[in-house]
Design a protein that fits this description.
Elements: E1 18-20, H1 21-26, E2 33-43, E3 48-58, E4 63-72, E5 78-91, E6 97-102, E7 106-107, E8 110-111, E9 115-116, E10 118-120, H2 135-145, H3 152-161, E11 166-167, E12 170-171, H4 173-196, H5 201-206
Antiparallel strand pairs: 1-10, 2-3, 3-4, 4-5, 5-6, 6-9, 7-8, 11-12
Helix pairs in contact: 2-4, 3-4
The structure holds zinc ion.
The site of zinc ion has 8 residues, from loops.
Length: about 210
């Protein structure tokens, strides 16, 4: 996974770190039992790396992922972050299940709890959905700038159409379309930010902008 998005125009470029159910599914995190690993992002023209530890617990009583990482504040102070993201399973055809994240963020004192396919680290300390991080708003701006840009509601609508992620080891048509839309969504954000902030040109270039 790679990223490079910054909403606040801070001096150092943090990556747009994200976790997707597709990525976790591909790497076996939704199989029954316990699984753990590390996700690493490379961002910025200096190719700086950052990572999180992630584990999943899937059994009859519990379906969740646990995330651990350290963030560095502006003043250089380090903060360890550690929390659960509940998963929601929805039945697919043929008796299998697909998993979604339940957005764990509170916004204006209200629990979000949206069922989403991707969580972003946005400009906060915790991973949350695109609604919580106002990426929906950013996407609206981007769609004004770029033709063919995918809007967040379009992605949500497509996600609902995904009855099954894989068939005989291959992603299904609807799932492929959903992933493509997620990709286009991010691409649009990169383009939008690159245009707004030339400092991100180096990152945008990697994405073929
Ligand atoms: Zn949310």
């Amino acid at each position: 996974m790679r990223g490079g998005w910054n909403s606040t125009g801070r001096a150092e470029a943090d990556g747009l770190k994200k976790i997707s159910v597709g990525f976790l599914n591909k790497h076996g995190y939704f199989e029954r039992g316990y699984r753990s690993g590390v996700i690493t992002w490379t961002s910025g023209w200096d190719e700086s790396k950052s990572n999180i530890s992630i584990s999943s617990t899937i059994n009859d009583d519990t379906q969740k992922v646990h995330i651990t990482y350290t963030i560095t504040k502006h003043d250089g102070e380090k903060k360890d972050i550690d929390y659960d993201v509940p998963l929601t399973a929805t039945p697919c055809n043929y008796g299998s299940e697909r998993y979604w994240f339940t957005c764990p963020l509170y916004r204006n004192g209200r629990y979000c709890g949206r069922r989403v396919g991707t969580l972003y680290l946005g400009n906060g300390d915790y991973f949350g959905c695109r609604h919580c991080y106002d990426l929906t708003y950013a996407s609206r701006n981007a769609s004004e700038m770029y033709k063919g840009f995918v809007s967040a509601p379009d992605i949500d609508a497509q996600r609902e159409k995904v009855k099954r992620m894989y068939y005989r080891g291959e992603p299904t048509r609807n799932y492929r379309k959903y992933l493509k839309m997620e990709e286009q969504f991010e691409m649009g954000l990169f383009k939008a930010v690159a245009k707004l902030d030339k400092r991100f040109g180096g990152i945008a270039k990697k994405y073929g902008v």
